[in-house]
């Protein structure tokens, strides 16, 4: 399972290299990555281009999301949590939730299992970004 979080971290770092927000995500079924994405709000000038949404877009039409696991470097926001619940993704593995709490209860209320790993690498990635880009971060989480 670590390899999938590492893939999500790679996605987050790609986003940062592109001048965006370092949040990454991968969708896994049967121990195989079927979708990956990173936050592209800045790069695409698109307020809906969150990492988890981009990951689902890149997975394409896969029919059912049964037996899928979403690995995300950061706790999903309300938008992403809604998509997770809507499509019936059964499990979310989160790199960290210190930088953004999201709404874990919403996910659990929609029968989504959430594992928060509290990984140092994910925490450091976000803390460093937020310290350097507080205005962009506040925009991303809707606090401007």
Write the layout of secondary structure elements.
Blueprint: H1 2-17, E1 24-29, E2 32-38, H2 41-44, H3 51-59, E3 68-72, H4 78-87, E4 91-94, H5 104-109, E5 113-116, H6 120-132, H7 134-140
Parallel strand pairs: 3-4, 4-5
Antiparallel strand pairs: 1-2, 1-3
Helix pairs in contact: 6-7
| Oligomer classification | single chain
Q: How are the strands of the biggest sheet laid out side by side?
A: 2-1-3-4-5
Order of helices and strands: HEEHHEHEHEHH
| Averaged pLDDT | 96
State the share of residues found in helices, binned by percent.
Answer: 40-55%
How would you classify the helix and strand content by structural class?
alpha/beta
Number of helices: 7
| Poorly predicted sequence stretches spanning 5 or more consecutive residues | none
Alpha-carbon Rg, integer: 14 Å
User: How much strand?
Assistant: 15-25%
Coarse morphology: globular
End-to-end C-alpha gap: 36 Å
Q: How many β-strand runs?
A: 5
* Largest sheet: number of strands, sense, barrel closure: 5 strands, mixed
Structure summarized in a few sentences:
The chain is of the alpha/beta class.
What does this protein structure show overall?
The model has no long low-confidence stretch (mean pLDDT 96). The chain has 7 helices and 5 strands; from the N terminus they run αββααβαβαβαα. Helix 6 (120-132) packs across helix 7. It has 144 residues and is α/β, with parallel strands linked by helices. 45% of the residues lie in helices and 18% in strands.
């Amino acid at each position: 399972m670590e390899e999938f979080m590492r893939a999500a971290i790679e996605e987050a770092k790609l986003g940062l290299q592109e001048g965006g927000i370092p949040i990454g995500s991968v969708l896994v079924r049967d121990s195989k990555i079927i979708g990956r994405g990173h936050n592209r709000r800045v790069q695409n000038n698109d307020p809906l281009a969150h990492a988890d949404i981009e990951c689902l877009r890149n997975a394409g039409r896969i029919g059912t999301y049964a037996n899928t696991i979403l690995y995300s470097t950061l706790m999903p926001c309300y938008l992403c949590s809604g998509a997770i619940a809507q499509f019936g993704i059964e499990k979310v593995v989160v790199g960290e939730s210190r930088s953004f709490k999201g709404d874990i209860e919403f996910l659990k209320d929609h029968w989504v299992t959430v594992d928060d790993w509290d990984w140092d690498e994910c925490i450091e990635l976000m803390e460093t970004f937020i310290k350097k880009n507080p205005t962009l971060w506040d925009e991303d989480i809707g606090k401007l």
